[in-house]
Structure to design on (224 residues):
């Protein structure tokens, strides 16, 4: 697990520009056309998975990132 | 997005929802401080908002989300070999369906032994702005979320 300061900054407690804008870095996201980075993920039903497990299961996989709010 | 996923499931297209952080923390759904809380919020996403796609949680520090640009509601499409072929800084079902139809057509053309080479393209897509629905979503999080959005962007 990462450091508490990063956890607090990423999980910001208020939607104010100083807190959310630094995270919006779509321009620096991985490029199309080359293999993307893989990360562990945790299914809602339990257990552990990974992004590569997800994308390797189908010809194409749509991944929507988001939250309740 | 749920309907889109169901519509293309039989054609080799998978779809998931990757749970990140609370973009608009409020009194009812505050910022995340534990994986247990993140699990509760993701369960609410499934049970209250009706997300029918598999929901997978990112690490509490957003390791995956941060590596992919940290936008609050973005969509990516990957090939089976892990190559992203579409990325959008906002999730819009029409835009995603347009892309999926194109890529399924590419698959058909490859099966027909067409010789295809990839190239890069940029374009702007357009989405409906349903402010009423958006603010209803903020209200679910709580009055704090509504006020902070108004303070940041007006409306």
């Amino acid at each position: 697990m990462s450091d508490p300061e990063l956890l607090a900054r990423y999980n910001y407690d208020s939607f104010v520009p100083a807190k959310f804008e630094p995270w919006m870095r779509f321009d620096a996201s991985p490029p199309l056309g080359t293999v993307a980075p893989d990360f562990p993920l945790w299914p809602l039903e339990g257990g552990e998975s990974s992004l590569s497990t997800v994308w390797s299961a189908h010809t194409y996989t749509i991944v929507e990132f988001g939250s309740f709010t | 997005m749920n309907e889109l996923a169901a519509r293309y499931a039989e054609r080799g297209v998978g779809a998931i929802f990757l749970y990140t952080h609370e973009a608009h923390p409020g009194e009812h759904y505050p910022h995340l401080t534990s994986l247990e809380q993140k699990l509760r919020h993701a369960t609410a996403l499934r049970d209250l908002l009706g997300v029918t796609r598999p929901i997978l949680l990112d690490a509490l520090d957003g390791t995956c989300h941060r590596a992919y640009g940290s936008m609050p509601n973005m969509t990516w499409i990957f090939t089976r070999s892990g190559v992203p072929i579409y990325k959008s800084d906002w999730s819009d079902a029409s835009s995603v369906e347009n892309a999926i139809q194109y890529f399924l057509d590419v698959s058909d053309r490859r099966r027909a032994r067409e010789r295809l080479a990839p190239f890069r393209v940029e374009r702007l897509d357009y989405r409906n702005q349903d402010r009423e629905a958006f603010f209803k979503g903020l209200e679910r999080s709580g009055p704090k979320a509504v006020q902070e959005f108004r303070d940041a962007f007006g409306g």
Remarks:
- Chain A has a mean pLDDT of 96.
